[in-house]
Amino acid sequence: MQKRQQGLTLIELMIVIAIIGILGALALPAYQDYSIRARVSEMLLAAGGCKTAANEAITSASQADVSATLPLACENQTTKYVSRIGADANGVITVVGNHETLRGSTSASANSISLTPIQTGSTAVNGSTDGGKPIASWRCGPAATNGLPVKYLPASCKAS
Q1: Of the candidates 70, 48, 47, 72, which has an alpha carbon nearest to the alpha carbon of residue 130?
Q2: Which residue in 5, 21, 49, 127 has the fewest CB atoms around it within 10 Å?
Q3: DSSP 105
């Protein structure tokens, strides 16, 4: 009577382990990028209150010069993924991400997104002359300093 082979041979087992290793090596960087993009989306959501406050400050201004009130429209807010939110005199909101939760980006200092208020067409708000005009949309992208790499921005930011 012949003895039947049961189980896997050593070569078959090594091939299965090699295939799993290759698949893991391909999937892990894609998953890390995905998780960073999810955190960046949460950073944009955290800026929602600041966007509302800036819109209110600009549209309800009684004088043309709103540059003094815009920085006050956004108080320093922090969340799990945001270390600071602030606005400048022209209403440009800068969201600085917590570098510990954005691991995997090109550097620890590349963690900022800016949201620029647009009043008409592609004209950005000028805090010293545009009080009382409504904000039509917001343009987002990497901040001028320590800007987050474009590959981590949500699709809504890449298009604007």
Answers
A1: 70
A2: 5
A3: S
For residue 129, is it within any domain?
Answer: yes
Q: Is residue 3 part of a domain?
A: no
Structural domain count of the chain: 1
Residue 95 CB-density burial (10 A; 0-12 exposed, 13-18 middle, 19+ buried): buried
Sign of CA dihedral 89, 46, 59, 145: positive
- What's the CATH number where 140 sits? 3.30.700.10
Domain span holding position 91: 10-158
User: What's the whole-model pTM score?
Assistant: 0.75
Look at residue 5 and tell me if it is in a domain.
no
pLDDT digits (tens, 9 = 90+) for 90-132: 778 889 888 776 765 556 677 889 998 887 766 677 666 666 6
pLDDT tens for 7-37 read: 778 899 999 999 999 999 998 888 888 888 8
